[in-house]
Amino acid sequence: MTTTSDVGTGAVTAAGTEPVTGGAAAGGTAPAVAEPRTLTYSEAVREAMAQAMTADESVFLFGEDVGTYGGAFGVSGDLVHRFGTERVRDTPISELGIVGAAVGAGLAGMRPIVEIQFSDFTAQAMDQIANQAAKIHFMLGGAATVPMVLRAPGGSGTGAAAQHSQSLEAWFAHVPGLKVVMPSTAADAKGLLLSAIDDPNPVIVLEHKLLYKQSGPVPEDPVRVPLGETAVRRTGADVTIVATGVMVPRALEAAERLATDGVSAAVLDPRTLRPLDDQTIVDSVAATGRALLVQEAPRTGGFMSEIAARIVESPAFGRLQAPVSRLCGLDVPIPYAPQLEQAAVPQVDDIVAKAGELVRRW
Amino acid sequence: MTLTADPGLAKHALTTMWTIRRFEEAVDDMFARGLMHGTMHLSIGQEAVPTGACMALSEGDYITSTHRGHGHCIAKGAKLDAMMAELLAKETGYCRGRGGSMHIADVATGNLGANGIVAGGVPIAAGAGLAVRMRGGSQVVVSFFGDGAVNEGAWHEGVNLAAIWDLPVVFVCENNRYGMSMSVDRAFNVDTLAERARGYGIPGVTVDGNDPQAVHDVVTDAVQRARSGGGPSFVEALTYRWKGHSKSDKNLYRTREEIESWRERDPIAAFESAVTGAAAATAPSVPPALSESDVEECRILARDRVREAIRTASAAPDADAATLTDAVYAPAGAPIAGGTRG
User: Fold this and answer.
1) What is the average per-residue pLDDT within A129-157?
2) In the Cβ-directed half-sphere of A205, how many Cα atoms lie within 13 Å?
3) What is the pLDDT of residue A29?
4) With an 8 Å Cβ cutoff, are A141 and B93 in contact?
5) Which domain holds residue A329?
6) Which cofactor does it need (chain A) (predicted)?
7) Which of A94, A177, A200 is nearest residue B157 as measured by Cβ atoms?
8) Whole-angstrom Cα distance, residue B77 to residue B69?
9) Local confidence band at A258 (pLDDT 50, 70, 90 cut-offs)
10) Is residue B335 part of a domain?
């Protein structure tokens, strides 16, 4: 496997993300430092919230069942016992009201974190997200800010069917004024959330249900991962795979298998869709000459269409050896039956097949 | 406080109402003459509600406003030249030409913003109240909205959150009888909108929204209750907009007679009669708060303020497209409305 020299590998170290497969940490003699501590993605989110609440009195969490219940997916866990019911505040089932209250609290000096149980339910709150939170700073000519974070799990794979399984990142990324974050590792789940909480703008953090139990090394300190830095998860010479959310580990698994077939695939994870670090993507595609863009969301109007456009508008266009390709969810609502659900979104086999085809055919 | 007995308060109330009216008459005129762009929603006829309500507030208290929000801004103490500049698409406008009539805010005076979405400000007001509570502050939030908002989901969710958390919010409904063309008689199956308060376990009262004293009295009670930890209240102020919903309105849904009957109940004329003693059937036992010349002074002051605002705003530079995208996102470390945190 050859490596490209001009991809933004610096971002990997700077951001403190998980080491790429086969990295230097895997072998050799044990250094004199402790093993990197491992947390689940869910624990990493909780730790970020706890550290932010400890450091800043104005940070608080509210949402449906985030208190004693511990959150629908257990993400808030014991936070109510550590920070009390004022700062880890249960709400009625009122998504529009909750997000509106976060906007108001942000305007009046707090830094609220709202948890929406399933990202699908943001449809209930969309006025406050898209018309209020996103636009207030601009509409007021910069005279006010809305510092708030909206966390919501998205994605399929749990048998929860069409109203509890969507990948809605393109909705949010289409609205100027919102920032959109999609962590794919435990370290990023913590580091990106800390940056989101610091940010003076409304930030939508789309967690993935299938990643909550995945473990990875996470720094104990509140290390920020900046918004707007694409992570190079794996370097490669033949094709650049760009993936988001749960498609990142699938792309990495696919890249492993491709390597045994003699195909060298780079895997890039934008991590934040707004702001988007497209330069790292463009640089990688310029080096490999091929781009495979993988998303769980339906194809039409999806965010990978935006990335495709950025690539073909860039100087990388002249280096392309193959059409820029997308591998997306089907244009269907997510179904219930497990075999149907799997068929609706890209799997590792699909990525292997598509990437292999791109390299062999072109 | 008795607005009609204290000369200082009477002058303030009267000047505020006249300023709102003159401001809106001026923008109506400029729009008709093609000097103003876009659209706007005028509150002529409703001036007593923001005037009476905002006089119950203290410095630092918040309001959320509506698409029909010029009166709220003025009553809360906004600068007329910056308002006028915004309407005239100037760089010196409150929103640097980004917002226009429907999005004027004045964070310095606690005005968290007008809102183009009906009931959009209601849950925001609850959230501002939550912030006050969590920061240990003593401010109160007044959320203005119209009758149309009371049938929006956001209204119910926002009022309920304020109610269950005892937040310091006063919900002030300007019931001007129409949500665009839909009359309250057709849009509600309750006799008064204030009845809705009972469903949330908070006090609700209906008042004459054309009487600044009546509005002031009930809002003062509600503000005191909110400030002392007693939770939110709902005030329904009955009033009427003389002008159409917006610039496209042909008034097809109401009669000339109905409009005329409400014009005869002009809140400003009624207040002038009250403060000069002209309304009293018999000779008043106390001297009237204001003389005819005091009243004339208030009118002139309002007129001159609006004229000066037009002059200042007209001379200001136009909003500059070169900086169009610079306020989409706040830079790191941007100041926030609540001032220093924690």
Assistant:
1) 96
2) 26
3) 54
4) yes
5) 10-16+227-361
6) thiamine diphosphate
7) A94
8) 13
9) very high
10) no
Q: Which residue of A has its CA nearest to B105?
A: A140
CA A56 to chain B, closest CA, distance in angstroms equals: 7
Name the minimum distance, in Å, from the CA of A181 to any CA of chain B: 15
Q: Report CB contact under 8 Å: B120, A104.
A: no
**Listed residue (A152, A57, A141, A160) closest to A114, CA to CA:** A152
Kindly list the residues from chain A whose CB atom is less than 8 angstroms away from the CB atom of residue B107. Answer: 140, 143-144
CB-CB under 8 Å, B123 with A97: yes
Token pair listed for A78: 């014991």
Q: How many CB atoms lie within 10 A of CB B136?
A: 8
What's the CA gap between A312 and B214, in Å, rounded? 66
Same domain? For A195 and A270 the reply is no
| Residue A4 confidence class, pLDDT cut points 50, 70, 90 | very low
Tell me how close the Cα of B249 comes to any Cα of chain A, in angstroms. Answer: 25
Q: Which of A217, A235, A254 is the last residue of a domain?
A: A217
Cβ neighbours for B190, distance < 8 A, ≥ 6 positions apart: B196
Which pLDDT band holds residue B283 (cuts at 50, 70, 90)? low
Output the CA angle A70-A75-A80, nearest 5 degrees. Answer: 40
* Co-location of A268 and A155 in the same domain: no
Q: Is B17 an interface residue toward A (CB < 8 Å)?
A: no
Residues B161, A92: C-beta atoms closer than 8 Å = yes
A239 and A211 in one domain?
no
Distance in angstroms (rounded) separating the CA atoms of residues A265 and A259: 7
Contact B295, B14 (CB under 8 A): yes
- Give a yes or no: residue A151 inside a domain: yes
pLDDT tops 60 at residue A22: no
CB proximity B204 to A under 8 Å = no
Please name the residue of chain B whose CA is at the shortest distance from the CA of residue A108: B338
Mean pLDDT across B178-188: 96
Answer for the pair A35, A62: CB distance below 8 angstroms, yes or no.
no
Among A139, A149, A224, pick the best mutation site for testing chain B contact (most B Cβ within 10 A): A139
B160, B328, B339 member nearest A97 (Cβ): B160
Neighbouring residues of B159: CB distance < 8 A, sequence distance ≥ 6: B122, B126, B171, B196, B197, B200, B202, B232, B234
Q: How many CB atoms lie within 10 A of CB B177?
A: 18
Q: Which of A167, A165, A230, A227 is nearest to A202 (CA)?
A: A227
Would you state the pLDDT for residue B107? Answer: 84
ipTM of the complex: 0.94
For testing contact with chain B, the best of A140, A150, A276 (most B CBs within 10 A): A140
Strand partners for B238: B175, B208
Minimal C-alpha gap between A67 and chain B (Å): 15
Specify the number of domains making up chain B: 1
Say if residue B339's pLDDT is above 60: no
Who among A109, A142, A179 is closest to B338 (CB)?
A109
Are the C-beta atoms of residues A304 and A293 closer than 8 Å to each other? yes
Residue B55 has pLDDT above 80, yes or no: yes
pLDDT the model gives residue B40: 87
Check if A81 is active-site.
Answer: no
Q: Is the pLDDT of residue B1 over 90?
A: no
- Show residues of chain B in contact with A128, CB under 8 Å: 120, 123-124, 154
Q: Are A151 and A192 in contact (CB under 8 A)?
A: no
